[in-house]
Structure formats: structure tokens, C-alpha cells
């Protein structure tokens, strides 16, 4: 019996990186690269057509991010498994990846054999996310530092954006921090202002500070 072929899609804004990953993966008889893209927009168009089993998505792109692509394509294709690829790890990217429904998060420094093994693992339904990280994300969602009842209407993403607004971050800085497109952040800001019945970012910052959004609780808890 011939081995089951795992269909893989690649998203990275560097052509040489895509070629390198394709070469590595296609060196295994059980993996076939069925499509690739260099931008988030291309990926959102091509992934549904390619019908991959696994999408390897670069976290940080020139425009948008692989995390945003993961969130969007999995809403339409919940059976798709996403493996996030990045040059370096940080808590915010891992948090956003978990929130987007990614099955794994690996560094570009990964060895070729390990990448092949990871693709096979996630294709088989194994999560590569560190259980402790997932636990922190669940804790952050279920016990957000919210004081005003109006804050309960905010999504986890909107709550995090409110924290960053309180820190004086611009939309571009928030986009970079959360691995989102600047346009997406602008929409989040507009929606959270509407939910909280506020008129400006300044009012939002004052509101967040008053309710200690993002601040530690008593005795640092």
C-alpha cells in the first residue's frame, strides 16, 4: 500500500525561503506541496483552491500576517491544519497563533528532518503547541482583568488592543505587536469604541486606565 500523501501549502514573502521549504518537504515521499503564496491576499485566494491538508504560514509578512490568514482560512476550512513559521518566538505571537487556531508554532531555524516530522505530526492531529502556553492563553481569556461591565462585551483581541491604546501605541505599532494588518486594527478600534460608547482613542485610554486594563491585580496577582 502506498503512503498517504500530505498536501501542503506554503506562505512566505521571501521566494528563496519558499523554494527552500518546498525542496525540503518534497524530498519526502509522503508530502506534496500543492501551492504557495508570497502575500496574505494571495494565500486567502489560493488556499481554498489548492485544498491542502496543512498550511505552513509565515507569521510576519510585508502586508498582513500568517496569523490573520490562519484565522480567516480556518473559519471557512476548519479541517485545515496551520503550522506557523517565524524567525523568532515571542509570547504575543504564540498567544495570537493559539487564538487563531494554529496547531503548531516553529522557528525557521528548525532542522529539515524536524520540519518534515512536524508536518506529519500536525497532519495526524497532534498539536505542537506547548501545553503551558495554551494554559496561559485560556487563563487570559477566562479571567481577563476587566472591571467595568461594558468591558465584557469586548473580544480577547479587542481587550488586548485596548491595553495597547492605553500604552499610547499607534495602529501601526499595535499591528506590528499583534501580527495583524493595520486595516484590521483600525476596524478593531472602531468596534471597541462603539461597544464602549466612547468617541476617541483618548477617551479609550482614559477608560482603560480608570479600569486598570492590563494592570496587575492586588499584590501583583
Could you characterize the architecture of this molecule?
- There is one protein chain.
- Helix content is 50%, strand content 13%.
- It has 10 helices and 5 strands; from the N terminus they run E-H-E-H-E-H-E-H-E-H-H-H-H-H-H.
- The protein has helices at residues 15-25, 40-50, 66-76, 91-100, 112-123, 131-142, 156-166, 171-178, 182-196, 201-210, and strands at residues 6-11, 31-37, 54-58, 81-86, 104-107.
- A 5-stranded parallel sheet has the order 2-1-3-4-5, sandwiched between helices.
- Helix 4 crosses helix 6 (131-142) and helix 8 crosses helix 9.
- The longest helix has 15 residues, at 182-196.
- The chain is elongated and about 60 Å long.
- Residues 216-221 have low confidence and may be disordered.
